[in-house]
Fold these 3 entries.
Entry 1:
Amino acid sequence: MIQLRPIYVICMREFIKFFREKSRLLGTLARPVLWLFVVGNGMGSLIRPRAGFSYIQFIFPGMIGMTILFSSIFSSISIVWDREFGFMKEMLVAPISRLSIVIGKTLSGTLISVAQAVIILVFIPFLGIHLTIRQFFEVVAVSMLVSFCITSLGILIAARLTSFDGFNIIMNFLVMPMLFLSGAMYPVTSMPPALRHLTLINPLTYGIDALKHILLRNGTPPLGPEFPLLLDLFIVAVISVVMLTFAALSFRRKE
Amino acid sequence: MSIITVNNLTKKFKSLTAVDGISFAVNEGEVFGFLGPNGAGKTTTINILCTLLSPSSGRAEIAGFDCAKDPDQVRTSIGLIFQDTTLDVGLTAYENLKFHAYLYNLDRRLAEKRIDEMLAVVELQTRKHDLVKNFSGGMKRRLEIARGLLHYPRVLFLDEPTIGLDPQTRNTIWDFINTLRSKEKITVFMTTHYMEEAENCGRIAIIDHGRIIALDTPAKLKQMVHGDVIHVITTDNQRALAEIQKTFSLAAREENGGLVLETEKGDEFIPKLLHSLTMQTLSVSLKKPTLNDVFLKLTGRTIRDDVVADSKEVTREFVRSHRRAQR
Ligand SMILES: Nc1ncnc2c1ncn2[C@@H]1O[C@H](COP(=O)(O)OP(=O)(O)O)[C@@H](O)[C@H]1O
Ligand SMILES: [Mg+2]
């Protein structure tokens, strides 16, 4: 049912293509720079530092979450490209299970997202955040879990998307709202109730909150973690498993 | 011994019956062709045989395995070259082949050996580490053939293998396939709507509206139409006409300053004719019936919508490459 060699080679293909496409790497760095230093500084002048944190420090965990969000969705949407350009057929007629394809895509999407999240950490010295080795590994571990969750969601979507035209709809009506309603830019507790409810069903909210636990350790709400760490991790893990199960199932049915 | 057996196979897409109760068998080592116009159901049949589609009813078996019930066994026995390219143009030739080798669970050493071997077969050794993006249409096709053969399949499926390629490349591809067949024991199942291409097949099934309307060797199919046409010019056409009537009891008719007569096995008839005529012969030509004539006779239509089909193909390729560029 699960074949290791095919999973390995499906991952290798994604890695090769990721490192070959310089624009994707560049985008990874450019987007957070824009947010952190342009929006972060602009907003930062309006919002006074609280609990020892500047606004720009406050949004840094959110930037990691944003990087993971875009990267994971992009990786899994590659399934739609593969289908559109026929490469998917090469995989579908091979003597491998559909589950192996889903695992290969999920694994590669997750690892690429984590790699990008780690790349973002190069900004840390410019933000005045101090990071211990231990915190670094905690960030990597949480990023891994969040990447896995979002990639699974992306694959679930990709399995149902029949053409590339749906991609813009997904970007505008799912990815962007997920970013803005995640506590990345503003504390969840400060949102109006209607928006807060939406935020509470967004898995990214809990992922970013877990990152705040690590990076804004001494922060107090609203500029700091807002939910218990264990609850964050539990919710993200549960949503991941549910997403991946549905993704694997719908992939099977679809093809 | 037959390696592909298809029994009363039907595929319906909602109200449309794309494949309508076809039955045939392909022998091991044979080159078997499906000839028919666009929309005849060729690709649909291949998709069922290669386990991408399940049939609405009927059975298809490859190497003794049921395509619907035993897909994994079928998949290891077949190699495929699809109508539309399925290469990853963002990877190199080597990477595309390696991907394939690992999907088919060849170990690393064997994979490297086969990759070099197959690249040599299709004469792409020097382009091994080039991105497929930079390949011409013919090179991509050859690479796909190399890939389809990498796991030593028993049956190679080629769906319109030379569509959108220029006639010269088309011939090169066929030279490759024929040399390959002389080296490896492989069965080839191909579809085409090019008459000339169908001539490469040992046997041809002519398919139209999802039904097989004729199935035989190209030579036998052409015999269905009428004999060969011989055009002969002599120094005295009137006397020649009388002589032909007398010697062969054949009614020739005058046309274009010469005589036209229809006969079977024209190539064997010409020497006899020249031998028997008492006057000098100025020129002789022979026209054999084509598969297009066969199709015309069977359906009342010609198969030749090539021009439209090809331009459609080109447009599609353009849209794709354009979108790819945007990516
Ligand atoms: N997935 C599909 N859904 C609906 N109709 C289809 C599908 N695939 C093929 N068809 C229809 O089935 C018929 C046969 O198509 P196809 O097998 O591709 O023909 P060919 O390969 O001989 O050109 C066509 O009328 C085509 O429009
Ligand atoms: Mg077709």
Entry 2:
Amino acid sequence: MSETDLTKLPINTLLDRSDQMSSTAVAMHRLSLWLASPRPYLMMIGFGLFLGFWYLSVEVWKLPRFAEMPGLTTVVSEWLSKNPIYGLSIFVDEYYLHIWVSIRRIAIAFFLATAIGVPLGLFLGWSKRFKQFVFPVFELLRPIPPLAWVPLAIVMFHGSETPVIFLTFLASFYATALNTMLGVQSIDISYVRAASCLGAKRWQIFRHIIVPGALPFIFTGLQISVGVAWFSLVAGEMVSGQYGLGYVINTSYTMVRYPTIIIGMVTLGIVGYVTSAMVRVLGDYMMQWRTRELALGGER
Amino acid sequence: MNPTSASVAVSALPGGAIPAQAARTGKVRIIDAVKYYGAAGTGVLAVDHCTFEVPAGEITVVVGPSGCGKTTLLNAIAGFHSLSSGSIYLDDEMLCGPGKLKAEPGPDRIVVFQNGALFPWKTNIENITFGPMMQGRLTRAEAYEKARDMMADAGLRGIENNYPGEISSGVRRRVEIVRALMNDPKILLLDEPYRALDSLTKSVMHEALLEIFYKNRVTIFFITHDLEEAIFLGHRVVIMTTRPCRPKKILDIDIPHPRDYSVLTTKRFREFMDETAAAVHEEATKAFAAGEKER
Ligand SMILES: Nc1ncnc2c1ncn2[C@@H]1O[C@H](COP(=O)(O)OP(=O)(O)O)[C@@H](O)[C@H]1O
Ligand SMILES: [Mg+2]
């Protein structure tokens, strides 16, 4: 047997293809798989049933329970109207001002929560000593719901902007820090040992093993983080603030502009979905090793 | 494989001086090693006054039932944890011993882990260049060049920029061994590296490992619970008792190297199997009985 026979063993043919697959190619590949599967069509049926039930129950059957509820056609025509009866539609600048103000608050709070939560979580997971004196405080503050902080936030911070951002920040921060810490703890000790065998120093291990190893959990944390950010933002905006989608919903209620409530809610749903999708795309981009593994597996 | 092709395999090395020199390093002596987990009285005695030697430039295989303390011993050599007493020497340097019971992990002793430890977030070539780059021993360009050469040599061309998750587990093992060899270690510590593989892949991996060994003549410390694997690969086979582990029988396998799979059907191989199977079976039975009692 010659030397080459032994060493040039056949390697999985899948490799040759995936090697040339860029991340866009992987994305396109996934999109075509998705379109070929029954999922998009089931999704449309789901939406159809939901909207159909809304339309029928309010406007056709006029069920008593939904007497005060604005109907599908009322909301849609208001939303798309150049001259909205209640003042808010896609043709009104103020609509975008509300969206912009909310997004800006989310962005600031999310950025702060990430910038503080990720390093804190990394150190909590990395250093036993650090965890021993920080974590108990953290665990005691964490169960306090953001709404319970409303009065203190208003007293502590001036104006209407900072308290809302603070409330939005809180829940996001806990989710990010906690998941990051769990991410560090989830790292297989073999990776750390392998790195130290290969001559990596402590900080090199931190940078090359701990941070990337915790990344999947960090992004899970960030997904939760944007979700709860919207949650506490709306709560905050309903209590304080002069703009924003939560404010729109709350004032529309007191001023009996019911279709506008629904417009605010639907807008929240869409904008919230887009922000989570952005976090997910960023995660896929930063963890191509995982995206590629999953692309090979075919399932998500 | 006939003797002529063997001499080709050894002398065909680029920079042929390395194997001769490497053959003189990597001797490990384990002297009276004891490892006790947990507090006195309530803990587990994993390694009990264990003494044996891993000769330089050879493959030493440690066989013993699961849970007997093989990994514990390997971890002490690698420097992942301390011994309770005893000492371990690498060539003439004390790795650990009285006054310094924990060795420092380092690139002279590289572990290939039971479940594999290629970093999934780094591409294969980034994994392979990790050691020299962390140590600052090579520049990036040098490290990449050396890695490409070594990968090509090991039949791993074309997967440089793939992630470990994209290649089969057999190929992953080979990448991991190349990652270790990049550092010119004195000894490779392999902890049941082929445990999870099917028997066909396993036999291919065995021959590939021997091929690597013939090229590099790096000392190998190999742990397994598979007797056949041990006798096929080893110059020396150390059969361990059940926990706490201690050498029960040390055999020098005089089947000439280079070996290939035809060795398995030879009379000499069967003789070694017969000679040791009883000892291994006895320890496995004891381990099983002990496991039953503990529960
Ligand atoms: N960190 C630990 N703490 C306590 N006991 C341990 C620890 N690691 C291993 N052990 C015990 O020591 C014994 C030997 O383990 P190990 O060296 O992993 O065995 P092997 O590698 O031979 O299968 C086992 O009984 C195991 O439960
Ligand atoms: Mg083990």
Entry 3:
Amino acid sequence: MNQPQPRFDLAKARADFPILSQTINRHPLVYLDNAASTHKPRAVIDRIRKVYEEDYSNVHRGVHTLSQRCTDLFESAREKVQTLLNARHSHEIIFVRGTTEAINLVAQSYGRKNVGPGDEILITAMEHHSNIVPWQMLCEQTGASLKVAPISLTGELLMDEFAGLLSDRTRLVSVTHMSNALGTINPVEQIIAQAHARGIPVLLDGAQSAPHMTVDVQALDCDFYAFSGHKLYGPSGIGVLYGKESLLTAMPPWQGGGDMIRRVTFEKTEYNELPYKFEAGTPNIADTIALGAAIDYVNILGIDAIAEHEHHLLAYATEQALKIPELKIIGTAGHKGAILSFTLDRIHPHDIGTLLDQLGIAIRAGHHCAMPVMDFFEVPATARASFGLYNTFEEVDILMDGIRQVIKMFG
Amino acid sequence: MLDQIRDLYQEVVFDHNRNPRNFRVMEDANRKIEGFNPLCGDRITLYAKVIDGKIEDVSFQGSGCAISTASASLMTEIVKGQTEQEAEQLFDLFHRITTGKNGDEVNLEELGKLAVLAGVRAYPARVKCATLAWHSLQSALKNDGETVSTE
Ligand SMILES: Cc1ncc(COP(=O)(O)O)c(C=O)c1O
């Protein structure tokens, strides 16, 4: 078989990830759960260690050398994120714990200020729970209602229905850029254009898109964009909210504390400028700096080259999966990221997951934090193989062989 | 290659998964409960007819993995005809065996047919699958006739 070779050195890239070179249940690890979280290259691991061994101090607070050095590193990570997303200003980059926290921040700050009784928030039927529940909470707090744009059986957003749900009461549209359960990449340009035509801001959940495609928030013209470092080969516990300056400036702070203030008296507190207004308390310093290292790493390989390689893996995996008659792919959108969600006749995904694990193959089995998607496809769960930059065509073969063994075992 | 896992996926498990026993709605049940494992989406509805402290009949419906289906099927076979107290004791034993630490002294013989599921203790992520039906039964026995949910 002659598979297209990635534009980067795949064997070398694999060697950059120490965790990959181990055996699981006496088989070489085949890690296909990248949509849940990716592994970390040596550069990221070393960066965390170096922060603590050489550069660590609290940030934004001291006059001493280490504090200054650490602050510079921390702020340079912000600039790396700014460049990654092509944001206009670095102060439009807010560091948070992850996508979940970013969405909650927008719901509680932007939402509480701008959403009232009778207003509407519009999401889609393919959202992760973290892009559903914060809006339900907001609706409960404000008397607004949550509208859900439906999807097709291929897992694509029904754009006519979506457009029909945009109303004079819609205060915010919040959609996933790429679905973690189905792999669908949404036509966000069109979504944003339609929402903006009515003056409605749009939040993109970028948890899955940031690691798998070039994202340009200015070209997209999205108003908010959220992603998690741990899915981008960076540490867990650090993520990003991008927001347009004009929106962030008008938003009230979400949490109160140190760093987010300019002047505090017991009568009145003056808030700090962006981005610090939204970064109360000592941040996740080392992981933020290491996120910068993850972005550097991804840039060396090239996000486009990574996306291309993953696309080839997905195409190959899909082709091979279609040869297995008992296998049904859930999510067959025309425009997809490297996620293969599937079910097998009469074999529950949990059994698939446990059995494949015996062969060293790590996949996800479950509802992928998208229970409404499972309900829509009338399955309790799916098995999901999701690819990252370090996966190989041989690993796809191992997965397919494993699936055949599982089918055989169930008889 | 998958042979190593035969300790859990034994033929009995496949058999009960393919042909679950007592897999039916019970119209005249006086206990009914929905069991739900939010982690994996397994759902079962457990029906029981309990008269004077004795489980006269028990059945289930629902969708789940092989482990949870086989466990529910085996459970219904075994507790049918038992007193509530006997079923409760068996649940205790089953719970200890599936969640116990390796090396804990357990007498598999006491478990009878249920012993096939003892292997689940080596797969902590799957223990909840094996115990879902039992937790549902326990709630059903504690409760007098109303529908409750373990969610
Ligand atoms: C599409 C999508 N949105 C949101 C999230 C939540 O991300 P996190 O758990 O890192 O906050 C995830 C990941 O689990 C995701 O895949």
